[in-house]
Design goal:
2 domains; Serine Threonine Protein Phosphatase 5, Tetratricopeptide repeat; three-stranded antiparallel sheet; 387 residues; mainly alpha; elongated; Rhomboid-like fold; 62% helix
Amino acid sequence: MFIPIRSDRPLRTTPYVNYALIAINVIVFALTARPIAMLPVQHHPVYEYYLHHDNTKLWQFISYQFLHADGWHLVGNMIFLWVFGNAVEDRLGKLGYLFFYLAMGVFAGLAHWMTSIAPVLGASGSVAGVTGAFLALFPRTRVTFFYFWFMIGTFEIPAMVVVLFYFLKDLLFFSMSAGQVAYSAHLAGNAAGFVVAMTLLGTRLLSREPYDLFSMWQHRRRREQFRKITHQGYHAWEGRAHVHAQIGTKGKPGPVMTEQDKALLEQRQSISRAISGNEMSEAARLYNQLVDSHGEQVLSQRHQFDIANTLFGMGDYPHAARAYDLLLKTYPGHDERAHAQLMLGLIRARYLGQPEQARALLQEASQRLQGDDAALARQILAEIARS
């Protein structure tokens, strides 16, 4: 038997709401377990609190979430709620998590109501919503499982593997119409939790972390941009510029300036038009003119980062360093902060002769980078130490 017991996600706050939800489920089960075990299902004192397809009451979409058919049903749900819910509450906040948990139960119940006429009870749909959100928020977290069969011990599995395994299992059983389990509620809860969490990250209603799924996707896109520089003939890490590389992007207008400074506004609009037309070399040239004539001018986060990357690809290291530096100063919470620090540290160490400034940038960046980027940061730090 395999039982999840914890994740390696450290908590910043005590998840009191999740503790309370688990306690309420246990208390409700303790109060209703004996009648449920002894009476025909239609005569259960709590039968009216199940979610019914016929004569549905709105409050049943809440009440059904706190009822369980037997001890194994309760224990299975509460174990998963313990393992995954604590971290999700830590990210969403207490009131946000409570609303999210109940909303996922409502959505899961609605999905079951639309696909089955059987009454339903249990926290499975709510817990599925929590695990779906966990996948979006903590895809690289590892879950520890306890096992006992012929041997007893523990092992770790990436959370992404755990959540996807149970999702695919439910999908298979749902397609086979197997058993009495409300698989449609599980699937709907998983999907809803994942979509809600990704939407919160995408709209910045929830602050991003370096290794949530949304940020990982953006990091991948940025790495593809760096690879494009290299593939076009620019050996970024060796400092050899054979050709001028351009990075295409679909830009949005930069920050709107006051009407009073028409010349400044026109320059910024020219940069935006160049970016929109994938004329990144021209956009970089115009940006240099803008900063030279008007001082420290900063574009939107995305445009500023793309301009800095383009200047780096062109081998214009002083201006690239200025662009990265302004990006870091103006947008301290930028999603690509670690990558911008890596690029600025590389420029200062290898091209501008500023090893101490580079060291501070790379030491901070290396704590959040991974893979090839982390290896590059360590390599440059080693070069600085030897110099």
